[in-house]
Amino acid sequence: MNLTITSLTDYEIGDLIHESDRTVVDRGMSKVNGQPVVIKLMRNQFPSFNELVQFRNQYTITPYSLALAKRLVKRKP
Question: pTM of the predicted model, to two decimals?
Answer without folding.
Answer: 0.65
